């Protein structure tokens, strides 16, 4: 390979530095071929002129797309020709989202499918494409066939002009979020330029999100056929014979050549207010040397300025993405976005799971919210604290996100082989099997498969994307797309994790990181500047200082519904609960979820039976091998509200693989319960009954809609949580040292309990969190924030009432 990763293939210069370089350089080869063939066919008859176009009965005043008056065009047809999508408030929808990602659904992407073995494969449309500013296309029209090629150019330039403005604004916001791997505006513009080109040429894969959008897509396609039929009618006889409707009813050849003839004008409209450079050198200067497009993302249009090896033609367009198959462009864009977001996510979980807290204390937390310096899984000792619940809430959305990304990756990889083997297979899809026209895609794949017929070779170049090489945290998982495999690991409490192949440290691309892991089996301790796992198979690990209740001590029995950690596990646990509710209802004919939330026959495995003891009723089990500074003493257990014990039936088998009974201080148990109530309630609101909510609050359920079962189960779940809360609250009241009298008021159990609940529910709502997470990319974290905001508002209202009650007392 030549220096810089460039290598000649078939006499052409293909750049192998990264996937982006590869695609653009092959696109250059294809463009030159297509351009030469198009010019021989059309003889300049397809080039549009803005000044010849008709807008509201008048011809355009200029051929300059940046100076053209588009206002009349936008106002036509009752204002339905504004290119950019608006939300319910009339504001432009975001182009880069911190809530949503790529769209891969089979019913929204053309060519996506599940084969006979149910292997899902297909393309994924980037979020940028979903809200492309081309909403004027379905409503464009041309009543004068002699002006059709000019009128079409006006509408395409209108869309390009607004698309460029939109991307410029949101690209700036994106770079404030991802400072380590900023987006290049010229590259983003090139991607949208190519998507616009595919729409015009009938190659676009995105079908639309819903019925309305799909109907608009069909309307657009019919409009384009009318435009090109009008264009075809005014062509000279020789050209008309080539583009004949009988052989090409969708005018695919004509559309391809029209784009080739007018792409420079469209690029000029797209870059009216752009700035920056293209990602690699595609222009030639006066001396014939390579240079990068810089001013307005354009090559200089001078007497000597031209695209490299463009046969002496002058062009301002630096990109050739519009001659790269859309599936491959989207795959490369997906990889860049994945790497950029993965780095941000890893930085966040590292902050909350390892780095110092606000007090400057070092911490080592597990993804389940446990403090690993005090947790020893080998003997069933679990401790929270040290702000480790922040780690739980940081890891939960990250693990969910990366599992979903893994599925999207697998889907796109499986499509690669099919694309290579049949050259994209688009000729059948594009024209309903009535034409053999193959277009630019077949030419591209013929060039690509010389060195990249094996998908792993292409994946290796994805690693070289700038955003991917910036992921350097080994503990977070470095990027190696070509080595991605499948494995599983064991969860913190002994169960198989739901990582779907995303937790193999040796395959770091989709590794959920060392930061989102269970505590080491025997815990950790700090040695110098490093964390060290405590030794296994020693008395320090398998035994040590533990506690037990005094003889005849009275316990508070607390029966709680098991909850999960990751979204998949949470969903599975709640589904099991709902299934049991339905089964009990069928068996008894009544709502047997009443007393315990889920029925008691055949459903014991859904619950945990905890026993909590007052601090005064707890004693230490002495052990000569214990480390005195390793564990809290009995007084600390008492100060923490006492001890809660979950009997581990498996420990009675005397197997060394099973820990002793699980012990938590009451405070830790309380925090654990609150955290999982919040996580489960977020899942209910944002996933399971999302479609059953009205105005975000009112639940609409009846026997005539699909919400009936889920809403009914949600009501049982709420009752279950109320039943759990009663004994938890009861045990809280056993702490006698809480009640204190002051000059103006008495510090009661109720007052303290309310403060504790506020603290636990809103732990993630601190300034530290907002500084670290304000730009974090996750729909789940945004939903968490909405849920905590509702709770925060509730506490604020309560505080105001208390202040109003205290005011008269303070005046006395």
Strand content: 5-15%
By DSSP, the count of extended strands is 21
Number of helices: 22
Mean pLDDT: 78
**Globular, elongated, flat, extended or rod-shaped: what is the shape?**
elongated
Helical content, roughly? 40-55%
Class by SSE composition: alpha+beta
Domain Plasmodium falciparum erythrocyte membrane protein-1 N-terminal segment: 18-54
Domain Duffy-antigen binding: 122-329
Domain Duffy-binding-like: 333-485, 669-802
InterPro entries: DBL, DBL_C, Duffy-ag-bd_sf, Duffy-antigen-binding, PfEMP1_NTS
Your description of this structure?
- With 812 residues, this protein is of the alpha+beta class.
- The chain has a domain at 3-95 and 131-325.
- The protein contains 22 helices and 21 strands.
- The strands form 9 sheets. The protein has a 4-stranded antiparallel sheet with strand order 13-14-16-17. The chain has a 3-stranded antiparallel sheet with strand order 8-7-9, with no helix packed on it. Strands 1-2 form a two-stranded antiparallel ribbon.
- Residues 122-329 form the Duffy-antigen binding domain.
- One of its GO terms (molecular function) is host cell surface receptor binding.
- Residues 18-54 form the Plasmodium falciparum erythrocyte membrane protein-1 N-terminal segment domain.
């Amino acid at each position: 390979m030549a220096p810089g990763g460039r290598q000649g293939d078939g006499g052409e210069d293909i750049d192998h530095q990264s996937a982006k370089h590869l695609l653009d350089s092959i696109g250059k080869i294809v463009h030159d071929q297509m351009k030469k063939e198009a010019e021989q066919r059309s003889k300049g008859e397809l080039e549009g002129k803005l000044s010849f176009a008709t807008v509201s009965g008048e011809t355009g005043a200029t051929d300059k797309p940046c100076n053209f008056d588009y206002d009349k065009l936008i106002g036509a047809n009752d204002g339905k020709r504004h290119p950019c999508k608006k939300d319910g408030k009339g504001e432009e929808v975001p182009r880069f989202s911190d809530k949503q990602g790529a769209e891969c659904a089979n019913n929204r992407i053309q060519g996506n499918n599940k084969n006979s073995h149910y292997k899902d494969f297909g393309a994924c449309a980037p979020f940028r494409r979903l809200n492309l500013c081309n909403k004027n296309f379905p409503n464009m029209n041309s009543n004068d066939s002699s002006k059709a090629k000019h009128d079409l150019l006006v509408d395409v330039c209108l869309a390009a002009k607004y698309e460029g403005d939109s991307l410029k604004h949101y690209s700036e916001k994106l770079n404030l979020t991802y400072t380590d791997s900023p987006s290049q505006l010229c590259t983003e513009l090139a991607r949208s330029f190519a998507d616009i080109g595919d729409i015009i040429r009938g190659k676009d894969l995105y079908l639309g999100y819903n019925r309305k959008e799909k109907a608009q897509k069909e309307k657009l396609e019919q409009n384009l056929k009318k435009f090109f039929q009008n264009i075809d009618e005014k062509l000279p006889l020789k050209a008309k014979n080539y583009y004949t409707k009988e052989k090409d009813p969708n005018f695919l050849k004509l559309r391809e050549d029209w784009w080739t003839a007018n792409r420079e004008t469209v690029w000029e409209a797209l870059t009216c207010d752009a700035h920056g450079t293209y990602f690699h050198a595609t222009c030639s200067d006066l001396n014939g040397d390579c240079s990068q497009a810089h001013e307005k993302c354009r090559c200089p249009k001078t007497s000597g300025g031209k695209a490299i090896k463009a046969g002496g033609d002058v062009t301002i367009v630096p990109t050739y993405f519009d001659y790269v198959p859309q599936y491959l462009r989207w795959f490369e864009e997906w990889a860049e976005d994945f790497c950029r977001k993965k780095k941000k996510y890893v930085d966040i979980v590292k902050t909350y799971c390892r780095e110092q807290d606000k007090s400057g204390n070092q911490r080592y937390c597990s993804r389940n919210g446990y403090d690993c310096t005090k947790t020893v899984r080998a003997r069933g000792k679990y401790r929270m604290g040290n702000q480790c619940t922040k780690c739980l809430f940081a890891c939960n959305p990250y693990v969910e996100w990366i599992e979903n990304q893994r599925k999207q990756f697998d889907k796109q990889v499986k499509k690669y082989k099919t694309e290579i083997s049949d050259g994209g297979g688009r000729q059948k899809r594009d024209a309903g099997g009535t034409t053999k026209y193959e277009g630019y895609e077949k030419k591209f794949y013929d060039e690509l498969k010389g060195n990249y017929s094996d998908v792993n070779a292409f994946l290796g170049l994805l690693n070289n994307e700038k955003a991917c090489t910036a992921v350097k945290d080994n503990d977070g998982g470095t990027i190696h797309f070509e080595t991605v495999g499948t494995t599983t690991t064991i969860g913190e409490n002994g169960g198989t994790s739901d990582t779907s192949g995303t937790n193999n440290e040796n395959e770091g691309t989709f590794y959920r990181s060392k930061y989102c892991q269970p505590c080491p089996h025997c815990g950790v301790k700090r040695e110098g500047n490093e964390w060290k796992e405590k030794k296994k198979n020693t008395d320090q690990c398998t035994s040590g200082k533990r506690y037990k209740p005094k003889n005849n001590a009275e316990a508070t029995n607390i029966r709680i519904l098991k909850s999960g950690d990751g979204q998949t596990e949470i969903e599975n646990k709640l589904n099991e609960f709902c299934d049991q509710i339905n089964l009990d209802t069928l068996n008894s004919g009544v709502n047997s979820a009443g007393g315990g939330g889920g029925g008691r026959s055949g459903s014991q495995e859904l619950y945990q039976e905890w026993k909590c003891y007052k601090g005064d009723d707890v004693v230490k089990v002495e052990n000569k091998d214990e480390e005195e500074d390793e564990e809290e003493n009995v007084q600390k257990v008492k100060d923490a509200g006492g001890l809660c014990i979950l009997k581990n039936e498996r420990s009675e088998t005397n197997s060394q693989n099973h820990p002793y009974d699980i012990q938590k201080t009451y405070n830790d148990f309380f925090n654990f319960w609150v955290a999982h109530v919040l996580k489960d309630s977020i899942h209910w609101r944002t996933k399971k009954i999302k479609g059953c909510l009205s105005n975000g609050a009112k639940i609409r359920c009846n026997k005539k809609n699909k919400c009936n079962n889920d809403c009914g189960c949600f009501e049982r779940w709420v009752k279950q949580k109320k039943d759990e809360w009663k004994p938890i609250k009861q045990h809280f009241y056993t702490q006698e040292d809480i009640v204190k009298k002051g000059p103006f008021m008495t510090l009661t159990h109720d007052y303290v309990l309310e403060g504790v609940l506020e603290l636990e529910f809103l732990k993630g709502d601190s300034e530290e969190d907002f500084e670290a997470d304000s730009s974090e990319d996750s729909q789940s974290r945004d939903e968490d924030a909405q849920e905590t905001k509702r709770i925060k508002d509730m506490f604020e209202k309560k505080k105001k009432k208390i202040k109003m009650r205290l005011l008269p007392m303070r005046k006395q």
